[in-house]
Amino acid sequence: MQANGESRRVEVTPGAKVLFVTPGKLGDSLISLVIPANLARAGFDVTVRGDCAHDLAKWLPELQTGPHLSTEEYASIPDQFDFCLMDSQAPGLQSDGVDLRPDLARRVVFFSLAHHERSLDGCFDPETLSADKREWLQERVPTHGLIRDETKSGLTMVEHVTHYCRHELSLKNAKADLGLVVPKDVDSREQKGPVIISPTSGKARKNWLATRFIVLARLLQEAGHDCVFAVAPSEMPEWTERLRGRFPMAQTPSIAALASLLHSARALVCNDSGAGHLASALGTPVACVIPRRDVGYTWRPGWGAATLVSPVFPVRGLSRLWPYFVSVKQVRDSLEPFMNTSSEVS
Question: Do 19 and 78 meet the contact criterion of CB atoms below 8 Å apart?
């Protein structure tokens, strides 16, 4: 993450207009943003379309952003750019039983973090590239769209995407930095803020027990640490009832508001969720509770300091019971390294 106003271009190349379309979910979207960040550093004029990135527009000054593409926009938008990279699972590509990808594959390079359809590989026609930029842009056309390389064990998805940039998009100086810059209207992190507790995720089966998140907050509070709960706007009524005023709840109506909250936090406690990836990208320490005993979990937060907390026993055959095998003490202990030292922004 960068300080305000710092120049970050590391190589100069002829400008070309690039469209990058992200996945829909917050965590996947953030991981994928490693690609346009490196394209921008290499001198491309990059536009990112996706709701998560667009909500963080003020935090991504080197990128132009816009909301997710409508189904109608997909047909004409490749003509507005010199080169298009799209997540093959992006919102609107497969709608009402109609798959737009086969017709687009000649003009668009499709990629996916982990669930790619190989039939889309090799369909891109280099002749559709602008004649004056064709030779240069052809270097950026990957031989395949699947980013996760299962032959490379132990890497985070952030590391997989960075490797993909270097070896498939010929961005030799690629790095994991998203190009996040703290907006001027966001308070600087001069003092340690509260511990943020994010007790939900996109899938209920990935959530640790709500009651244990609350017990953890009570123990942290008794130890002198402020705790603030953060949930999606749609979850506010449920968690307002659960907490009954015992702990404050942050108002996070947008991803940008969540970013501001996490930027000033001492640490984040969360499930396997987008909030964990956002905190990690901002350099805020993360304690992430996951359902599996896997220290090399590929989808773990991949930027700043993060620790994974998993069941004390293997529970593959007891998927609904895994939360009962993660104790409050485990999570509390995992936070200890973060509580008495100041975090540095990565």
Answer: yes
Residue 69's Cβ-side half-sphere holds a number of Cα atoms within 13 Å equal to 28
Task: Express each pLDDT in 54-75 by its tens digit.
Answer: 999 999 999 999 999 999 999 9
Q: How far apart are CA 117 and CA 136, in angstroms?
A: 27
Q: Is the pLDDT of residue 14 over 60?
A: no
Q: How far is CA 241 from CA 200, 237, 246, 337, 340, in A?
A: 15, 6, 10, 32, 32
- pTM here is 0.92
Give every CB contact of residue 228 below 8 A, 6+ residues apart in sequence.
194, 195, 196, 197, 247, 248, 249, 250, 261
- Do 10 and 38 meet the contact criterion of CB atoms below 8 Å apart? no
Please give the Cα distance from 55 to 109 (Å, whole number). 25
**Where in the chain are the domains?**
17-167, 195-339
Q: Do domains 17-167 and 195-339 have the same CATH topology?
A: yes
97 CB contacts (<8 Å, ≥6 apart)?
Answer: none
Average confidence (pLDDT) over 25-35: 98
Cα 159–chain centre separation:
13
Q: What is the pLDDT of residue 236?
A: 97
**Class in CATH terms, 17-167:** alpha beta
Is residue 301 within 8 Å of residue 284, measured between CB atoms? no
Q: Does the domain made of 195-339 have the CATH classification 3.40.50.2000?
A: yes
In tens, the pLDDT along 110-156 reads: 999 988 889 999 999 999 998 888 888 998 999 999 999 988 888 99
206 DSSP assignment: G
User: Per DSSP, what are the bridge partners of residue 47?
Assistant: 19, 64
